[in-house]
Amino acid sequence: MKKEYRSHCPINFSQEIFGDKWSLLIIRDIMFKGKRYYGEFLNSEEKISTNILADRLEKLEDNKIIIKVSDVNNLSKFIYTLTDKGIDLLPLLLEMIVWGAKHDKQTKAPPEFINRFISDKESLILEIKKNLHFD
């Protein structure tokens, strides 16, 4: 079934995919924390509920931001990874990290990570992207 959008303004399009409080955190967990399994997402500090997690994973998969494949070592488990479309969110999430770190006095963002982004953004992006491909 084809999704209907309120408009095709790029901000609206993005908001309709990521406009909840969980989707970007799931992407963050895959992108920066190396989480790949359902149970790992449940253990995140924000404490997402199982029904919301299942819904958001399905929504991200439907929008081709992530893919779900069976774990060859345990066929009852699935591995979630970012698609190229999901990896394209990396610069956006990095900018959000820097903005959040600047404005949140209690940030958990390591200063060396922020400084590296500020001093050599392109190199950091390439390094992270390389680590996101699990081929």
Write the layout of secondary structure elements.
Elements: H1 10-18, H2 23-33, H3 38-42, H4 50-62, E1 66-71, E2 74-82, H5 84-87, H6 90-103, H7 111-119, H8 121-132
Antiparallel strand pairs: 1-2
Helix pairs in contact: 7-8
Report on this structure.
The chain is mainly α and 135 residues long. The two termini are 30 Å apart. It has helices at 10-18, 23-33, 38-42, 50-62, 84-87, 90-103, 111-119, 121-132; strands at residues 66-71, 74-82. The protein folds into 2 domains: 1-83, Arc Repressor Mutant, subunit A (Orthogonal Bundle); 89-135, no CATH class. The model has no long low-confidence stretch (mean pLDDT 93). It is built from 8 helices and 2 strands. The protein has a two-stranded antiparallel sheet with strand order 1-2. A hairpin with a 2-residue loop joins strand 1 and strand 2 (74-82). The longest helix is centred in the C-terminal third of the chain and has 14 residues, at 90-103.
**CATH homologous superfamily label of the largest domain:** Winged helix-like DNA-binding domain superfamily/Winged helix DNA-binding domain
Tell me about the biggest sheet? 2 strands, antiparallel
Strand residue content: 5-15%
Number of domains: 2
Q: What separation lies between the terminal Cα atoms?
A: 30 Å
Overall CATH architecture of the largest domain: Orthogonal Bundle
Would you list the SSEs in sequence order as H and E? HHHHEEHHHH
In CATH, the topology of the largest domain is named: Arc Repressor Mutant, subunit A
